[in-house]
Write a structure and sequence with these properties.
Helices cover about 0% and strands about 50% of the residues. The strands form 24 sheets. Strands 5-7-2-1-17-16-13 form a seven-stranded antiparallel beta sheet, with no helix packed on it. Strands 19-25-24-21-22 form a five-stranded mixed beta sheet, with no helix packed on it. Strands 67-74-73-69-70 form a five-stranded mixed beta sheet, with no helix packed on it.
Length: about 850
């Protein structure tokens, strides 16, 4: 247990020693002396550390284990542990104010310097330093990237490349590292280098730059190997689509003459970028020096214009422009299209009127802070159309491809083919008219990219179907001729045709030969497509006469159509007469005869023919007349009257008819009903005739004379009846009129009550009646309240309600118990108290009521009293 714990502590210590704090490095040297074949170099290892490394990250190592290897055998020639000589800090303290959300850029740089004397050798030396591991989460490396180390190298030339190779001062990177890179924004990063030998006329070194592999190095068990491992070194595992030559994506490139990296940055993250600078002396490559750096791409944006190097249209005159930097600090755009036209749109589309090359310019924030500009070239060369054809479609046979592209300007000078064979990575070509042999059948999606010397480039795709044998189709498969006639056969396919037997045949080596066999013969066709062969056949049946039998005579209903027909081996047909026929040349045409007609059919096979006939007899449809539609009142009856021509009839629905077997039934529908009369006959027309009569049932009249009420002497009572169109009141006593819906009643007290009957009719005379009782009180207007009530649920006197007489406005009716608690309150006389308080039944007791109202004269009425609840 103690041993396991100790091992765990060692593991933690080893992990803490990993170099995931190092963000890059480079190595260079200076020739400081020469004695015969011995050369003394001052070597500098330069390591970068992120100033803002996470807490707990290790600092730069105090020493670095350096190894020098002979490139002939990769044997170790020298090794030593070098102490850090000095350290500096590179930081961008005042970032450009035209960058939105600028990230922090800061590096601690450690220098490890030493002198070494080496003899000149043929293949030279490789100086190396290794450290494990890189940080986790590097975007362009496969995960986990913290299991990948780093190797930093420099090369000393040997005498095999040039006799003065060892007398070399290496290139050293001098570009600015305090650079802000914003995701999806244009940027520049200077990886430029200097070479002290470039000014020496005897050497005149020149430099060429390229992206190259970053090296891995070290391991979890040897984080800082001493000595380092010998070359050759292994590339880090790149995460597709990133690779050594495209570490920041396909929108970022490096200038091979200056080392300037430019383009549109990828997404936010960390990316390993390694630049190789190759030293050339008098045109001969003598050494490669490397800089390996982890570049941070921040979530920021720049208020600068960033354009494509060029814009080109090859299929019209329209071009769309956009700024790759979409910073919120950009407030305005001014585009100049090079033809005198301007735009202030953010992403303009411009139509040029002529072909040519134009210089475009974008100015952002003109006259404002963070104003900047950029230029690019626009090329307009319409009329560029990629196309291709092909011949040969059989597996394991040559398929020839032909460039059929065209261009109106310049010439097409580049071709790239991908023949779409999924099982191969070599199915490509850069020839104009290549050929390819497919190893498997199937549909191949062929990609063709063409480029012109004007810069036009386009891609097309076509599906090429590869068969095991060429497609062949014979039309028709079998045919029929009359003895002595000729017939032309037809085969469809691509290649060379041949037919057998080669008798009674003309043009036997074509797709469309003519044959005239005397007897039934099968002809076989062979199709040869560049040695790929397929066969098919067609049977030519020979007859001496036409067999024909017309359909039996038939009977149809007048105004109906009928399909004629016959049984025959004929090939062509003619029907007569052809009036009202859809096509007299069909075997089974449709005809609409106007009268009984005999139709003759003639069937032919070449010069042979036969004739037959069929008679179509017309019989009239049965007649049905259900009578006119009618309208009835609710809950009344309608007399129907029908007339027919036929042998039988039925009504539907029949449930509301008193006698559905009668042509004159009485209908008693509850609602509007459609009665369908169906008539049939037995004299030849099998189809029924139908007619419909609609009995419209008007809605039920609901006469309403009003609720029973009470008045006092002299009070005007306004009636308001409803339910119909016409109204009649009886008796008319005390009414202003008895023939309107809203008469006024005025009562003198000559009777205590009166009951009125209201008769109501609608627009068609349907009738209904209702009653209303008016009680006349011979008192002044007031509100009556009973002195007792019995809420026992027997339906009699269960509620305490006030009775208002001569009252126009009822203010309130309130009930209190003996403790002054309000137990009931209402503002209308319709509701009443059920003897409960809070849903609980009350025992026998006396309660106080109060009422307030306004009578019909406008006088306020107030009263109070007691009421006894009896259980």
């Amino acid at each position: 247990m103690k041993k396991l714990f100790f091992s765990f502590i060692i593991s933690l210590f080893t992990s803490a020693a990993f170099a995931n704090h190092i963000t890059g490095g480079e190595m260079y040297y200076t020739l400081t002396g020469q004695s015969g074949n011995n050369y003394t170099y001052h070597v500098v290892l330069k390591l970068y550390r992120d100033c803002n490394a996470p807490p707990g990250s290790a600092d730069l190592d105090p020493t670095a284990a350096i190894g020098i290897f002979n490139n002939s055998t990769f044997a170790l020639a020298w090794s030593h542990s070098i102490t850090m000589t000095r350290r500096t800090k590179l930081s961008l303290d005042n970032p450009n104010p035209c960058i939105n959300r600028p990230p922090i850029v800061c590096y601690d740089v450690g220098y490890y310097e030493f002198d070494v004397t080496l003899p000149g050798v043929a293949q030279g030396y490789t100086i190396a330093y290794q450290r494990y591991s890189r940080i986790n989460g590097i975007n362009n490396l496969l995960s986990p990237s913290n299991t990948v180390g780093a190797t930093y190298t420099a090369q000393i030339p040997g005498t095999s490349v040039r006799s003065d190779g060892p007398a070399n001062n290496s290139a050293r990177f001098v570009g600015e590292d305090r650079v802000i890179v914003c995701a999806n924004n244009a940027f520049t990063y200077d990886f430029g280098a200097s070479d002290p030998d470039s000014t020496d006329p005897n050497k005149a070194d020149s430099l060429v730059y390229s992206f190259c592999n970053a090296y891995t190095g070290g391991s979890a068990n040897a984080a800082a190997p001493n000595p380092p491992a010998a070359p050759p070194y292994t590339s880090v595992p790149y995460n597709p689509p990133y690779n050594a030559s495209s570490p920041l994506g396909n929108r970022v490139t490096i200038n091979p003459r200056t080392g300037l990296v430019t383009g549109i940055a990828p997404a936010v993250g960390i990316y390993v970028v390694t630049v190789c600078v190759t030293e050339y002396r008098k045109g001969v490559a003598i050494a490669i020096q490397r800089k390996d750096l982890q570049i941070k791409v921040g979530d920021c944006s720049m208020a600068t214009p960033a354009l494509d190097p060029q814009y080109i249209t090859c299929d019209g005159y329209n071009l769309t422009f956009s700024n790759h930097n979409n910073s919120p600090l950009i407030k305005s755009y001014e585009w100049s299209f090079g033809d005198g036209n301007l735009s202030t749109d953010r992403t303009p589309t411009h139509t040029y009127t002529d072909t040519g090359i134009y210089k475009i310019k974008l100015v952002v924030n003109r006259g404002e802070p963070c104003s900047d500009s950029a230029t690019a070239v626009a090329k307009v060369y319409p009329g560029f159309f990629p196309d291709f054809t092909f011949a040969g479609i059989c597996v394991n046979k040559t398929t020839q491809f032909f460039d059929a592209s065209s261009t109106a300007y310049g010439v097409i000078d580049s071709w790239k083919w991908d023949f779409g064979e999924p099982s191969s990575v070599t199915d490509v070509s850069t020839s104009q008219n290549p050929s390819y042999t497919y190893p498997q059948t199937g549909v191949k999606k062929v990609q063709f990219i063409v480029t012109s010397n004007k810069g036009c480039i386009d891609t097309i795709y076509k599906d090429v179907t590869i068969f095991d044998k060429p497609p062949l189709q014979v039309l028709p498969k079998d045919t029929l001729i009359c003895n002595g006639d000729n017939v032309q056969l037809k085969a469809v396919g691509n290649g060379t045709f041949s037919w057998k037997p080669n008798t009674n045949i003309i043009n036997a080596n074509t797709a469309t030969p003519t044959v005239n066999p005397a007897t039934t013969t099968s002809y076989v066709v062979s199709l040869d497509d560049n040695g790929c062969i397929n066969t098919d056949s067609v049977r030519v049946r020979v007859v001496d006469f036409v067999a024909l039998r017309a359909m039996p005579d038939t009977v149809i209903c007048a105004t109906d159509s009928v399909q004629l027909g016959a049984v025959t081996d004929g090939l062509r047909f003619t029907w007569t007469p052809s009036a009202n026929m859809n096509d007299a040349t069909l075997l089974r045409p449709t005809v609409l005869p106007a009268a009984t007609t005999t139709y003759q059919i003639t069937a032919s096979i070449g010069h042979c023919n036969a004739t037959d006939a069929v008679t179509v007899t017309l019989v009239p449809y049965p007649g049905a007349n259900a009578g006119p539609d009618t309208t009835i009142c609710f809950d009344t009856k309608a007399q129907l009257h029908a007339d027919i021509r036929g042998s039988s009839f039925t009504w539907s629905p029949s449930s509301s008819l008193d006698n559905p077997n009668s042509l004159d039934p009485v209908a008693s529908p509850r609602g509007t009903t459609r009665y369908v009369l169906t008539v049939r006959d037995n004299i030849g027309c099998p189809k029924p005739s139908r007619d419909t009569v609609v009995v419209n049932v008007l809605p039920k009249i609901n006469a309403f004379a009003g609720r029973d009420t009470a008045v006092v002497i002299g009070q005007r009572l306004q009636f308001n009846a409803s339910g119909g169109v016409n109204y009649f009141w009886a008796p008319s006593t005390a009414l202003s009129r008895n023939d309107i819906k809203s008469p006024i009643g005025i009562y003198d007290g000559s009777f205590d009550s009166i009951r009125y009957k209201l008769i109501v009719t609608n627009e068609v005379g349907c009738i209904d009646s209702a009653y209303v009782t008016v009680k006349v009180f011979k008192t002044m207007p007031r509100v009556f309240v009973p002195t007792a009530f019995t809420p026992n649920g027997d339906g009699k006197n269960d509620y305490l309600r006030p009775v208002a007489v001569g009252i126009s406005k009822f203010d309130y009716f309130r009930i209190y118990n003996r403790w002054g608690q309000l137990v009931y309150s209402s503002t209308n006389t319709e509701t009443g108290w059920d003897g409960r308080i809070g849903g609980k039944e009350q025992n026998t007791a006396t309660f106080v009521w109060m009422v307030k109202a306004t009578d019909f004269t406008g006088k306020v009425f107030v009263d109070k009293g007691t009421v006894t609840l009896i259980r």
